[in-house]
Amino acid sequence: MNARRDSTDGPENVDELFAEIVAGLERDGVGKDWLDLDEASPESDLGSDPRARADAADDIPSEPLDEPERRDQDRDRTDEDHYVPPEPPPFPVLRASTIAALGLFVLGIVLLVAPGLFGLESRIGTPLSLVSLCAGVGWLILRMRNTPPPDSGWDDGAQV
């Protein structure tokens, strides 16, 4: 590794380089249209006279000119304009094989938590519960459909 302190990779004086860049941009006219916030503040135009500030505040309209039209439109709106989502479709009827897979899953959980309900010791109930859980989950996964539902029509949508 090179641990030299006097690196020649960058400019010697960063401030001078920055000043040159800014001067070049000012010569090109960049930033002429920008508003100087110190010059535009109302306090600088009015001085420290509180009466002049109060008079200036009275001259400023409290609302934009197009605001009354907007308020009229808001008054016309009622609760009927809000979106009401349609009723969700009913759950499909579970088939017998799906109920059997869910039963295996529940049996596995019961055997894992309380094997004594079936008169088993935990050294026998634990492996049986793991087999039952895996069989139930596997059966549910194998029964998942990869095809569109039969009532989907001719358009299957975007498929990758």
Question: Termini, distance in Å?
Answer: 51 Å
Order of helices and strands: HHHHHHH
Structural class: mainly alpha
Beta-strand percent range: under 5%
Low-confidence stretches: none
Question: How many E strands?
Answer: 0
Rg over alpha carbons: 38 Å
The major sheet is characterized as: none
Looking at the structure, what is the overall shape? Answer: elongated
What percent of residues adopt helix (DSSP H or I)?
40-55%
Averaged pLDDT:
75
The count of helical stretches stands at: 7
Sum up the structure in keywords.
elongated; mainly alpha; 0% strand; 52% helix; 7 helices; 160 residues
Write the layout of secondary structure elements.
Blueprint (H helix, E strand, L loop, with lengths): L13 H15 L8 H4 L1 H5 L3 H10 L7 H10 L19 H18 L8 H21 L18
Helix pairs in contact: 6-7
